[in-house]
Amino acid sequence: MTDPILDVRNVSKSFGALKASDNISLTLVPGEIHALIGPNGAGKSTLIKQIAGGLKADSGEVWFDGEEITHKTTVARARLGLGRTFQVSSLAMDYTVAQNVVLGALGHRGKIGLKGFFRPAMKDKALLEVAHDALAQVGLEEFANTITSELSHGQRRQLEVAVALTLSPKVFLMDEPMAGLGAEGSQRLTGFLDQLRHKAPILLVEHDMDAVFSLADRISVLVYGEIVATGTVDEIRSNPIVRSAYLGEEDEV
Ligand SMILES: Nc1ncnc2c1ncn2[C@@H]1O[C@H](COP(=O)(O)OP(=O)(O)OP(=O)(O)O)[C@@H](O)[C@H]1O
Prior knowledge:
This protein has helices spanning 44-52, 74-80, 97-108, 118-121, 125-138, 153-165, 183-196, 209-215, 233-238, 240-245, and strands at residues 6-15, 18-28, 33-37, 59-64, 67-68, 82-85, 171-175, 202-205, 218-223, 226-231. The chain is an alpha/beta fold. The chain binds adenosine-5'-triphosphate (ATP). One of its GO terms (molecular function) is ATP binding.
């Protein structure tokens, strides 16, 4: 098998007596979508945060592109190429689409919060070029001057990906990108993610099973902080442990 670009090794994290991550290991290889599923509170977001850098693991290691990043900051990880989209939108709704991409690109570069940095940034030709290129890649170029609040939910998700693209990510971490989208929006975003995997593999946390089953090359199932199974869509659908622990409430999966 190809060498993993992301390699999570025996990561554990407790909140008091609660083991939110219990000795978790998983990998992401180039070109794949690896979905992480599990019931509410299973520890999916907690794991993503430990990979992205927002939360410190109690033990274990995170390796990215051949380098240990366990103790690196979120910004350092982003600079190395760990792209992330969030469960709750981090977009500034009253800014234009292009401004959000520039703002995001500055944030990734660790320059956000410097007063007066943003206005000149909007005149920075190189930065604007990066922003427009990212918008073109997600198909939002014609919306560059649109106020973000006017975009549909699905377009906002695409904009979040454009923000992540400004750092040429080698991996995407996505926490519930389908949340809040209707059936049609989910379908459209599914098609988009299917293409995006060729730019960078995706670790996808998602509750939308239609999306997961149509996109994932591999699925890992997290229950009470533990990965109870990893496998292909068919393997996961037919795994008796998974069916009773997680998919049990849905007879037909
Ligand atoms: N900062 C925290 N302090 C204490 N407990 C936490 C903290 N963050 C998460 N938890 C707990 O850890 C467990 C895992 O939470 P997490 O948000 O990772 O689950 P999840 O699988 O992402 O859930 P969902 O599908 O609802 O987003 C939950 O029991 C949650 O209450």
